[in-house]
Amino acid sequence: MISLPGLNLSSQPAQAQSVPAEAVTRTQDLAANTEYRFEVGFSRTLTVKLQSGTAELFGTELAPSTTYSFTGTNGAIFTWHGCKLDVGGDVESDYVAEETPMMSFANLHFALENLRDRSIASGSTEMGPRVLIVGPDNSGKTSLVKTLTAYAVKTDRQPMVVNLDPRQGMLSVPGSFSAAAFSSIVDMEEGWGSSSITGPSPVPVKMPLVYHYGLKDPEEGRTFKSLVTRMALAVTSRLEEDKPSKQAGFIIDSSGAISQGKNGVYDSIEHIVSEFSVNVLITLGSERLYSDLSRKFNARTTDPSESVSVLRLDKSGGCVARSEDYMRSLRHAQIKEYFFGRGDEPLAPSSQTADVADLHVFRIVEPDPSGSYTTVDEYGISVEKPLFEPVKVDERMQNQILAITTAGPKDSQDVIRDASVRGYIYVASVDEARRKVKLLSPLPGGTLDTALVVGSWPEPVEGLVG
Ligand SMILES: Nc1ncnc2c1ncn2[C@@H]1O[C@H](COP(=O)(O)OP(=O)(O)OP(=O)(O)O)[C@@H](O)[C@H]1O
């Protein structure tokens, strides 16, 4: 058996052990072009083994005779030509679906392949496809990104994947934005990974680029657009040095919040399209979004090199609306994995004690309940609040995740905002009397003489250290 999914084995050893791979299984026959869909909660485990035929999970092929196990996961195992699966364990629900959008996903992949071939034919002067995926919450954006990435990697491409959704991290913790080039297969059970230093999950070619956003909703913060601009510059300059990834292009995953629009205006989407020079904009699961965006971008076809193809894909019937409880468990599992690794790839985070006075923590300033960022200064004049405010480390900071930025503690607000992230630390405990703080870091050592940034997202995680 490989590992428990994503999501740290140590949190649920009892359940994991209660379902050994050799426990009772049943055979699930799948006809061609159908998929086996499952919902597995955090307290259950499903095991799946490919008995015969071929099958894939979000584009990644299942290896024969390998038992995969899933916990805290919703997903679907699809087969193009039919297969038999050995299914065991326990699920919230499962069923076989005959209608899937996989053919349209595969067609999209082939269209992207044409653009990649065109980039190669141009001697890499042209960049490969620059794709942005938008759609409401739970419309299947991340699953489509995984599928397109897996298909591209199977064709020996090295696409870059950019995550601009703070609800879920990619190779990092929730609340971050990240980008990484992928070259080998996406790990089956976990699928995306949150740790940047474990081995087998999606294997980035280089360390991921990470920026800290620190809020739940891209539309609520003042730093979203600047971070998109920074990320676009960083991704573009990385691609200039990396031919295979430049030819393969990139795929951007976004948050459902930016697809809501305000009176037909999609400011954040337009900003991403313009900063990343997106030329393929995929709308998932919303006729209205497709209609609004195609009207907007089709009107701009004066210069063909700047044209944006807006495509519409149907939402898969398998997409599951996830409860707030489920999402919280998912975030906590991701954070736990960032520090401790996974069942078969454990990490040993280092614990260090520091003086409270040595930490330079900046809190992201949030709007007041009316959404305003203005305040009245000592002269009664209305002024804009700063982006960050320095905060003292006290007991309220216990269980918080802090971003270690590349900015110095004396740098300006803009420098702190635009700084990339070296990694994250967890505040395990604060002893106010002794003025000491115990920190957990995925990497040993490291200087704390930088600006540490904390936001309201992700929320404090209790009990990370037992
Ligand atoms: N075909 C399918 N069968 C079963 N489950 C699926 C299928 N497609 C997606 N899901 C599940 O549905 C949920 C929502 O999908 P996904 O995360 O891809 O959507 P999203 O649009 O990225 O969501 P959000 O923007 O809210 O993060 C996930 O738990 C995913 O694993």
CATH hierarchy: architecture of the largest domain: 3-Layer(aba) Sandwich
The residue-averaged pLDDT reads 87
The strands making up the biggest β-sheet line up spatially as 13-12-11-14-10-15-16
CATH class type of the largest domain:
Alpha Beta
Helix content: 10-25%
Per CATH, the superfamily of the largest domain is P-loop containing nucleotide triphosphate hydrolases
**Which percent range describes the beta-strand content?**
25-35%
Count helical runs.
Answer: 9
CATH topology name of the largest domain, in short, is Rossmann fold
Shape: globular
GO molecular function, one term: polynucleotide 5'-hydroxyl-kinase activity
Family: Belongs to the Clp1 family. Clp1 subfamily.
Domain Clp1 C-terminal: 347-459
Subunit structure: Component of a pre-mRNA cleavage factor complex. Interacts directly with PCF11.
Structural commentary:
With 466 residues, the chain is α+β, with helices and mostly antiparallel strands. The chain folds into three domains: 9-99, Jelly Rolls, CATH 2.60.120.1030; 102-313, P-loop containing nucleotide triphosphate hydrolases (Rossmann fold, 3-Layer(aba) Sandwich); 348-454, Elongation Factor Tu (Ef-tu), domain 3 (Beta Barrel). It has helices at 13-18, 102-121, 141-154, 224-240, 243-248, 267-276, 287-298, 324-340, 413-418; strands spanning 25-30, 34-40, 46-53, 56-57, 60-61, 67-70, 73-79, 83-89, 93-97, 130-134, 160-164, 176-181, 209-212, 250-254, 280-284, 309-313, 341-342, 345-346, 350-355, 360-364, 374-376, 382-384, 388-391, 401-405, 421-431, 436-441, 451-454. The strands form six sheets. The chain has a seven-stranded mixed β-sheet with strand order 13-12-11-14-10-15-16, sandwiched between helices. The model is unreliable at 1-19 and 194-202 (pLDDT under 50). Adenosine-5'-triphosphate binds next to strand 7 and helix 3.
